[in-house]
Design goal:
The chain has 176 residues and is mainly alpha-helical. 70% of the residues lie in helices and 0% in strands. It has 10 helices and no strands.
Length: 176
């Protein structure tokens, strides 16, 4: 499963809001005439997609609505929107479109990570039993936090370990 990037999230979001499930700027130009929310999302996508932005610049006369909204959006986020750091987001109002889109993205990432951790947890428990490996052996060999690792393994508290550490345990058990 590929890592979900903010640009991919925006692309999927835009596609899901269109009638034809498309990212074609020419088709989007027609749809945004009656869908202001879609226009806003497309303008955010254009901020983060170099390829789409080049196409827009090349065909700005045919894509008047998208170009106008993109220009407004790029002026609004003139700062360093490419980094999308927490510091930049703190400067934004919670009702700001970029702020809302980024928090939707973060929420989706969290749900996805939880599902993946649950899958890994099942595999880890199975491998642990098959190979007769103790929790002590796992957290000692991998230098993981004792309490959090035990809580994850014994009580299935998925929030106690990151997805990275969950994968680390899984790969460790595979290679023993």
């Amino acid at each position: 499963m590929r890592e979900l990037k903010f640009t991919h999230f925006l692309e999927n979001y835009v596609k899901s809001m269109t009638e034809e499930n498309t990212l074609s700027l020419f088709k989007l130009e027609q749809e945004v005439e009656t869908n202001e929310r879609l226009l806003t999302l497309v303008s955010l996508l254009l901020l983060f997609s170099d390829q789409k932005r080049k196409t827009l610049e090349k065909h700005k006369k045919a894509l008047k609505n998208l170009y106008r909204k993109y220009r407004e959006t790029s002026k609004k986020y003139e700062k360093n929107y490419n980094s999308l750091g927490e510091v930049f987001l703190k400067d934004l109002n919670e009702f700001d479109d970029l702020y809302k889109a980024f928090h939707s993205y973060k929420s989706k990432l969290g749900k996805r990570d939880s599902r993946l951790k649950e899958i890994y947890h099942k595999k880890i428990i199975t491998l642990k039993k098959e190979k007769k490996i103790t929790n002590y052996k796992i957290y000692n060999s991998l230098n993981l936090n004792t309490g959090n690792t035990n809580d994850f393994l014994k009580n299935k508290k998925l929030s106690k370990l990151s997805l990275k550490n969950t994968k680390l345990i899984y790969n460790f058990l595979l290679n023993i």
